[in-house]
Amino acid sequence: MTDDIKLLKAEIKRLRKTVAGLTPSLEAMLKLRGFRIYKREPAEDLLLLQRKYLGPYFEKLKRYSFRLFLRDVIKHQDFFTPETVTRYATKEVTAQYIDFLLKTGVIERLREGYRIKKRPVKSFGETLEWFVARLIQREFKAEAVWGVKFKRPKVGGDYDIIAKIESSIVYMEIKSSPPKQIYNREVTAFLDRAEDLSPDISIFLDDTELRMKDKIVPMFEAELQRRYKGPAPVERIERELFHISGKIFIINSKESIEANIGTALSFFWNKSLKDSLDRGGANV
Question: How far is Cα 133 from Cα 60, in angstroms, rounded to an integer?
C-alpha cells in the first residue's frame, strides 16, 4: 500500500507539471487581471547560505524549532550565546543548529558567543517568505514569487507570495509573529489585497503552533462583519485550519506548513468540484 501511495503521489506531481506547462505563465495570468509586477524578491534581509548548503538549509527550515531558533538568532544578531537562543529546542539540538550556521558561514564566533556575519537583518519575515515560496515550487510543482509589489492606486504593500498552482492563482500572506502580535490592520490589509487581486485562493498563514481560534479567527469575523452585510462564516476544516466560502483560508503551521497548505488546496478543489456537480444537478 505504501508503494502504491508513493506511485500515486509521483503521478500527481507529474500531472501537475504537465498541466502547468499547458496553461499561461503566472506573469501572463496576472496581466490578464491588470497587474504587472514592478518589484519582487528583495534580498536585503534574506538569511541565506551559499548555494551548496541551500538543500540542507531548506530541509532544516521545515522544522518549526529551527525557524524559532533563527528568529532568536536574528533578534540577538549582534551577540548571542547558546543560552540566549535555547528556548524552543533542547541544548543538544540548539548546539547542532549553531554548528550548522558556523559551518555554513552565516554566523561567526566571538570570544564569549556568536553573531551574524552579514548584518543588519531586519527580521525573519523575508527568509520565511523565500522558504514558503520554494516549498510551493518544490512540493506542488508550481510557479511562485515572493515579496511582490504592484503599482496600484488604492491598494499597496507587499503581496508576500503569489503562485500559480495548476490553473489557479494563489495569494498568501505570511506572518512570522505569534497571534498576540498580529493586529486588525493586518487582517484588513490582507482582505484588501485579496479583493483587489481577486485570486482563486487566498491563504493567511501564521507560522505558529498556537491556536488560531482565540484571536486570529475573531479578527477575521469582525472585519467581515464590518465589510459586508450578512458575510459568510469562518468555518473550521480541521484542527486550527479554517476557511471562508472555500476560497479564503486561515492556517497555522502545526503538523507542517506543507501539509496545511495542501489541506487548504485540496479543500478548495474538492469544494469547487462539489459546487459544480450541485449546479449541474440543479439544471437537470
Answer: 15
